[in-house]
Specification:
There is one protein chain. The chain is an alpha/beta fold. It has twelve helices and five strands. The protein has a five-stranded parallel beta sheet. Strand 3, helix 9 and strand 4 (194-199) form a beta-alpha-beta unit. It is elongated.
Length: 249
């Protein structure tokens, strides 16, 4: 008689996995062989696992990755310039705990965005908050926030993210006001959280692309000097994965 009210109360307490597990135990006689403590431990483990999985899914959704990219799908062949052991170490997320940065570099089509999403997804799986942005779109969002008065709120939210991914870094011309906004973001994050920058532009060319050398120095100091580097090589991955066969002529 008490079974259904108990199950209903577990729903009210937001313990769905615990409830489902209990219902399974009540319907399956094999659990009668276990002690009360063993059965309770199983239910608690189920609820913890459920909550962990839900949190990971929330982190992945919040990250807003542009593509589905998993470590299992990553091509780690030597021809791409990737050292398997190094990439797997980065996927563990210790560099994020240490508040370091990572640079993903390489020519157009080399798979920088894919690798960035792989490392971002791995970070989510190790319980880190992540946000992915194409740099131009983040700069546009920052410009809009100046107009609607939400700039400082946006800065505060970006400062709390464990890993901020800036893709297509320095691909497009950058204005003085955009440079100042980037410096505000990176100044808040430096030494507290991590940033991943993906760029087809060689690091040596970054400085000259900023309109103000003082701001350029400050930004690069916060991005480069505490960063791991991944340099991608090889053929364009878009070409390699294209469903249309390439002509030999």
């Amino acid at each position: 008689m008490l079974t259904q009210p108990l199950l209903d109360k577990l729903v009210q307490l937001r313990l769905p996995a615990f409830r489902d597990g209990l219902q399974e135990q009540l319907n399956n006689p094999k659990y009668a062989e276990l002690s009360f403590e063993e059965r309770l431990a199983l239910l608690v483990d189920m609820e913890i696992t459920h909550r962990h999985d839900r949190r990971i899914q929330r982190l992945i959704k919040m990250a807003a990755f542009p593509q589905s990219a998993t470590l299992e799908d990553l091509d780690l062949s030597a021809s791409r310039g990737l050292e398997r052991r190094f990439v797997l170490e980065l996927a563990q997320g210790n560099w994020i705990d240490q508040h370091l940065n990572t640079l993903v570099l390489g020519p157009t089509g080399s798979g920088k965005s894919f690798l960035s999403c792989v490392l971002g997804l791995s970070a989510c799986r190790t319980n880190h908050s992540v946000r992915y942005f194409r740099t131009s779109r983040l700069l546009f969002q920052l410009a809009q926030s100046h107009l609607d008065g939400s700039f400082h709120s946006l800065l505060a939210s970006l400062a709390k993210i464990d890993l901020l991914i800036l893709d297509d870094w320095m691909r497009d011309p950058i204005s003085a006001s955009e440079t100042r906004d980037l410096l505000e973001i990176l100044d808040d994050r430096f030494g507290h959280v991590s940033t991943l920058v993906a760029s087809q532009v060689p690091v040596g060319d970054w400085f000259s692309r900023f309109p103000d050398p003082t701001h350029a120095d400050a930004i690069l100091d916060r991005v480069i000097h505490n960063a791991y580097r991944l340099n991608l090589t090889g053929d364009s991955q878009r070409k390699v994965r294209s469903p249309i066969p390439m002509s030999s002529t």
